[in-house]
């Protein structure tokens, strides 16, 4: 790839558009109209869809096609987008043939219910691993940004990427987040004196509970998720890893290269702010297989 199409250059080019998208999402949150759900399923988060999802994806698609017309792009709403057909491809390429992915509103149900911890997540993927991720929290006026091997930075939305300050997860709350399908871990983790948030049963429309991005804010000390989708869970895991957290699969191994995965998803992940938290989560996960 040319220097003008480096991961850093792509994010820098898109950042002003993402700032506009963030302002738009924040200002219409209280007025947002709900589109028909994406489909049936037990995970009502995955079924939620709003005008903002489609509008933000369209904005990013237009910016990409104008500035990087030969880029690969996979957006969460690719099936409903009128722009998908104009991109060269929607899947991973070879080494250096980057794929840009987008979750226009990560946490759409949080967004619909007026909570502040939804995000816009844009990632740049190589064939083996993430090269860059930027996760913007419009309602919290902040964003997190990482380039591969360079750590994670945090900045206010009115600050450019160069103004980001290094993020290090300090002393998080002794709270564990369990993603969908991980409820069985709860009893074992409570024995370790953790507060456990089982998202399938603990979500409230009235009271905001931490999302996976809580690993970056210190609201949670660790999380176990059943899979790491490239557009959201895996992207946030990359930000956490670059910030010094431990990220492994459920058997304690390093996550596999992206090109070996299916359906734009890593296998189940454990994300922990410390070695002790990781060991507790690992033991809990492995106890289910015994």
From TrEMBL:
Short name of one Pfam family: Inositol_P
SUPFAM superfamilies from the UniProt entry: Carbohydrate phosphatase
Listed GO MF terms: 3'(2'),5'-bisphosphate nucleotidase activity; metal ion binding
A biological process term (GO) from this entry: sulfate assimilation
Leader sequence residues: none
InterPro entries in the cross-refs: Inositol_monoP_superfamily, Inositol_monophosphatase-like
Binding site residues for Mg(2+): 76, 103, 105-106, 232
Keywords, comma-separated and alphabetical: Hydrolase, Magnesium, Metal-binding
Cofactor annotation: Mg(2+)
The family this protein is said to belong to: Belongs to the inositol monophosphatase superfamily.
Descriptive protein name: Inositol monophosphatase family protein
Biological source species: Scytonema millei VB511283
